[in-house]
Amino acid sequence: MNSNQQDRGIKEQEELKKKYTLKVKLLSQKVKSAKEFRQLIFNIVLNDGLKRMALRYCKFENLPSDYSEAALQKNILVDVIDRHIKNLGIVLSQIEIDELTRLVIQLYSNEKNKNIYSRVTEVQLFVHSKAIIHLGDGGDLKLNTEIMRKLLSISRLHLNIADIKKGNISLIINELKINKLQRDSKQESFPNYLYKVEKRYIKNWTVRHLRSIFYFAKPEERNLLQKLLKVKDSLSIDDLIELLANNWPMYDGI
Question: Does this model's pTM top 0.90?
Answer without folding.
Answer: no
